Amino acid sequence: MLKRVALTSTGGIIFIIGLILFPMPVPLGIPIMIIGLSIILKGSNKAKRLVINLIKKNRYSNQLWRKTRDLHKRIRNQ
User: Fold this and answer.
1) What are phi and psi of 23, to 5 degrees?
2) Residue 32 near residue 67, CB atoms below 8 Å
3) What is the predicted pLDDT for the residue at 1?
4) Are 37 and 19 in contact (CB under 8 A)?
5) Residue ranges of the chain whose pLDDT lies below 50
6) Model pLDDT, residue 56
7) Which candidate, 35, 39, 57, places its Cα nearest to that of 48?
8) Using CA atoms, how far apart are residues 62 and 51, in angstroms rounded to an integer?
9) Taking all residues of the chain, what is their mean pLDDT, rounded to a whole number?
10) What per-residue confidence (pLDDT) applies to 11?
11) Cα angle, residue 31 at apex, residues 27 and 45 outer, rounded to 5°
12) What's the predicted TM-score (pTM) here?
């Protein structure tokens, strides 16, 4: 339980830092937000369900998700 809280709060802080850096001319905001979101998803099942539902609702993101998942499977099987 404590590990999940720590992961979620750490991911949230990193995500907020990415939001702050997003409008700056140096492209650091988006990668930092992605790292923060991945940490949040590691620690929270509710956040996972929310992201999965959002991906399923949008046709284009669903296609991108499937392509990424297939690429990951091919790389892992090599």
Assistant:
1) -75, -5
2) no
3) 81
4) no
5) none
6) 80
7) 39
8) 11
9) 87
10) 92
11) 155
12) 0.68
